[in-house]
Amino acid sequence: MEIFIESIDPDAWNAIVKGPFIPTKEVNGELVPKEWDEMKNDEKRKVQDDQKAKSILTLGLSFDEFFCTARCKSAKEIWKMLEVTHEGTSNVRRARKHSLISEYEAFQMKNGETISKLQTRFTHIVSHLLGLGKMFEDDEPNIKILNYHTRTWEPKITTIKESKDLASMSMEALFGKLLAYEHDLIQQFHAEETEK
Predict the structure, then answer these.
(1) What CA dihedral angle connects 52, 56, 58 and 61, to 10 degrees?
(2) What pTM was computed for the model?
(3) 95 in a domain, yes or no?
(4) Which of 15, 107, 149, 192 is the most buried (most CB within 10 A)?
């Protein structure tokens, strides 16, 4: 989201991070907010940065989320509310991370599962862990994928492991090799069924 907002207007993202700009004036020894018509042009522009940020943030919200943000007075408040709603507090993030780590550690191929479904499940777990700050060594996800397949896959797994390029091979390339092997297995199965 940060990249999207910065691409539209970096000052709008700044308003989210730092909070709204409120130009003030001194009245009877106290600082009070200026009225719109008292502001200089550059002050008006800075005030509008927060309005623009609020607009960008609320445009993508569901109906319910939009009404939850109605009481927020600044883009920074909306952002904080959305962070807690979607990512949770630090305790929730920590619990989610531990849960995903457990899921990652217990990950294995299910009987009859296709490589596409395996890839979707595995990528989902890894992506969420990366989003929560988990770091992986270069070959760790690839080794994880290769160590937990059903017996049918042993010849291909052995070949891939012996190639010794797991650290430099992307996860996508590995899944590509597995998809190609799965395709060969399916073709072989159909050929055997036709012969019967």
Answers:
(1) 180
(2) 0.57
(3) no
(4) 15
